[in-house]
């Protein structure tokens, strides 16, 4: 980007110097033809093509700047010679163009060196014209011009030097800020990644805290929390609780082993889960006991659900490693808020009592607490 700006600025400078051509042609008696035309063509090619599109291509260095500034010093020298020499209206002020160019494109020392060369060329031209009879100290006009060369080179060069240093500092600061910002964003992204991982782990831990590992159902802790919420939510409706307990599960474990017992528990859990609504809550209450919460459901409807579950579980067949088909049955107790239970403890205890009655009556049965009264 910096090279492109310099290239465009160089071309603009060349275009704005076109009025000097008009000034030169305004006094044709002193102009050397066709030398001036040839010099104009050379200057146009040099400053319009060679310098901007060759010397300023890529990174600049002292050799390229020397060629560009030195070429324009020679152009200025011959321009003055072809427009009247020391009598030219351009003598020696025309050397200010390469001096200004040096302050723009070279460094401070380069600008001072250009002023020194311009002063030397001015003295040389004057000496050639006068046969070296007039010294620089006798020609105050020329002396003033040479002093002006150095003043322009010094003042403008110094100001541009300060500006360039400030620009480099700002550029370096911007680069450091960009690096710091990139590092900050990377740290932020990394922190966000860690935060997401921690949040995910927390969710997983929370899920594990309320989930039974064997069956994948919710556990007793979740049952207690959910029951409180459902009682509040259904205070103007009804909430039915079904307690299910596998019949003679100890005998089943003793006969087939605990691994088969665990497998049977998982199959019973899967069966219960598949036969209830999405709004219903199924939990492993403990051991071989399960609980099902049925929102907006009355006792009779709960009894029908319990019977459906009981029959499906009775029809369940789980094969052993030897290919033997095993089965179990469950007993169910049903209580309903607020029909037969007015609070949480009554709802649970009444469902347990109904379950106990189902066991007493022969197992593989469903009983409603309300009908025990």
UniProtKB/TrEMBL annotation:
GO terms for biological process: cell adhesion involved in single-species biofilm formation; negative regulation of bacterial-type flagellum-dependent cell motility. PROSITE patterns: GGDEF (PS50887). GO terms for cellular component: plasma membrane. InterPro entries: Diguanylate_Cyclase (IPR050469), GGDEF_dom (IPR000160), Nucleotide_cyclase (IPR029787), Rev_trsase/Diguanyl_cyclase (IPR043128). The keyword Ribosomal protein does not apply. The chain crosses the membrane at residues 9-26, 32-55, 62-80, 92-121, 142-160. Residues 237-371 form the GGDEF domain. This is Diguanylate cyclase (GGDEF) domain-containing protein. It comes from Carboxydocella sporoproducens DSM 16521.
